[in-house]
What does this fold into?
Amino acid sequence: MSQTGTTLSQFLIEQGRLHGDTDEALNGLLSDVATACKRLSNLVRLGELAGVLGAAGQENVQGEEQKKLDVIANEVFIDSLQRSGYLAGIASEEMDAHYPIPANYSRGDYLLAFDPLDGSSNIDVNGSTGTIFSITRHSGDGAPTDADFLQSGLSQVCSGYCLYSSASMLLLTTGHGVSGFTLDNREGEFILTHPEIKVPRATREYAINSAYARHWLAPEKRYVEECLAGVEGPREKDFNMRWAGSMVGDVHRILCRGGVFMYPMDARLQADGKAGKLRLLYEANPMGWLMEQAGGMAHTGTQPILSIQPDSLHQRVPVIMGSAEEVERLIGYHQELAG
Ligand code: AHG
Ligand code: MN
Ligand code: MN
It folds into this structure.
């Protein structure tokens, strides 16, 4: 008999059997997440034809201009996830406080924090975007509070993202490595295409928005200068640079072929009183766990991202993640050049 592709649902059932940790509620929740990703993928692919490009004409809680698709993505996910009884509450980049599952739906044991549409500045030019999500347990009884979401990255039971690009891909981990699924639009199914993704330890590629070079702190200045010096410099090799403008796009490339992604603390962020640009609960933690599960590292420069105890829903952190050799080097520069 000819071999057909493994669907996401089949994969989750097989993984549960293999590791003896079948969790039907989590599998059901991930099936809802996949449905939401398919719905959003369809809208992204239609672009202007679906009338989803352009500004929404309002700001989110972070004071950032919302695009129409930021708002639509938030609604598509909530609508797809709230009905099945797997979740107790949802936190989102686009919502000030968390969203409790309404009383007319049953309430489950999981919490989901997400970035509905990452890489918003790419929407109007049909560039890479994505959705990032992080799932933790709701330990208490009754409706969750914002405080229930403040769990470190080590408490995640599943994290992942869906990339909306030339193909749409769902990557996820439940703590047994990272698996990648490509959306087959003919079947409407995510099919396992990238089993056991591993990030190479060594790389010649880095990602940072170099328009902020004048604001960088000493560790990143030194690191990038040494990369730019190429084969004649202390690294004795030439480097390549890529910046997608979407963390999902950059992290996906790094998971596929190695590299290091940096959105570090800089003097501009310090002057604005911000602890970083990217958000801990729904950007750094889920991507950090994927990176570590793929054999890479995720750090702020001073501590592992996953070890941070969050103190607020929209907390920001500096982010350095990717191939272990480069992240280790950057941590070393932070130790040497601190202060
Ligand atoms: P979002 O679109 O969800 O606000 O996130 C954008 C983030 C991240 O995806 C990307 O790496 C970074 O912001 C880009 O920031 P700059 O525009 O400062 O380069
Ligand atoms: Mn984002
Ligand atoms: Mn976003």
In short: The helical segments are 8-19, 24-46, 68-81, 218-228, 247-257, 267-271, 280-293, 324-336.
